[in-house]
Structures are given as structure tokens and as C-alpha cells.
Amino acid sequence: MSVDTSTEQPARTAVAARGHGLAALRPLAGRAPAPAAPARATALHSGTVAAAALLALVGIGALLCEPVLIPPIAASAAIVYGVPALPLAQPRSVIAGHLLCAAAGYLALALLGRAPWVAALGAGVAVGLMTLARTPHSPAAATTVVVVTQAPDPVWFVPLLAGAAAVLVLAGMAASRLRPGAARYPVYWW
Is 2 left (phi over 0), alpha (psi -120 to 50) or beta? Predict the structure, then answer.
């Protein structure tokens, strides 16, 4: 009796093994297929507008000697310019969501102090508050974390945050009108 000692497996066995692994994940998958890829022009437009708006925030921050571009705002840009029709991208959610979450962060900071567990708790409370206020905006929950972990002066931070969120919304509105055939942003204001 001969034993095959080669390390190469037939292609059929490799394909079957890969298929078997995917089958194990099937119960975890959603029922709908992934959305179709957007046109390259749409992706280029979204990326260009996002970069321009975020660079404008960097410029404003440099003039004021204050950081205006924070990670949650960059994440908001991804939503506003990448999926502008979603409720998460509408001005009500972008601006009010960030302000509500900043308020939750300052309240958590005042009541419980500056600690990672306070940031986590505050972000959870902020998600609940956004849900109640009908201002869903996932990047805003990260604003709560920034407030609790960094404790920025609210006299400067809150107006800069509101202004940064407004810049994103206004740039999204302008960009949707400059590109022929683009869907109009916002879908609704309030």
C-alpha cells in the first residue's frame, strides 16, 4: 500500500474546504445581498468633497490654534458624503447628535470623573438619548468618549464642534448641487 506524502492537495479538495468554511458562516449572514458598487465618479466625488471639507476644518483649526478636526467629525464626513440619503447623514442627526452626545459627555464627566469606564457608560447613555431624540448619528457617540477622556474646555469645544458639524452639512449641500445628476442633500433638515 502506498501513501501519498506530497503536500499538494487537489484543487477540488481546496475549493471544497473553502466552501465548507463559508457554509459555517451562512447562519450569521443577512438575507439581503450587499449593495451594488457605486460608480467610480460617485466615489471620487464623495472622497474629494470629504477631503476638501476636512481640510477646511484643519485650516480653521490652524487659524484658531484649536483642534477642529477630531475623529468623530471625520467619521461623520464618511456618512454625510458616502451615504447622504441615510437618516444618520441628515443635518438633524449630524449637528444635534454631536451636541447631544457632547452634553452627555460633559454630564458624565461632571458626575463621575475622567475614566475609560465613564466614557463607555456615557457613550451608551448618549446612544439612548440620540434614539429618544430621533437624532441617530453613530460618530457622535465617539464625541462623548472624546469629551470624557480629553475633558476639553466646553467654552471652546462646543462651538467648534457645532461649527465643524455645520461645515460638513453645508459642504454636503453645496456638493450635491454642484454635481449634475447627484441626489440632493439633505433629504430633510429637521
Answer: beta
Q: Answer yes or no: pTM beyond 0.85.
A: no
Cis-peptide into 72, omega within 30 deg = no
Query: Domain residues of the chain, as ranges?
Result: 40-178
List, for residues 12-71, the tens digit of each pLDDT value: 444 444 455 666 667 777 778 877 887 888 888 899 999 999 999 999 999 999 999 999
DSSP assignments along 134-158, one per residue: T---HHHHHHHHHHHHH---HHHHH
Among 106, 103, 104, 96, residue whose Cα is nearest residue 76: 96
| Alpha-helical runs (H) found in the chain | 11-25, 40-64, 71-82, 91, 97-112, 116-133, 138-150, 154-178
Nearest C-alpha neighbor of 138 from the set 82, 97, 103, 171: 97
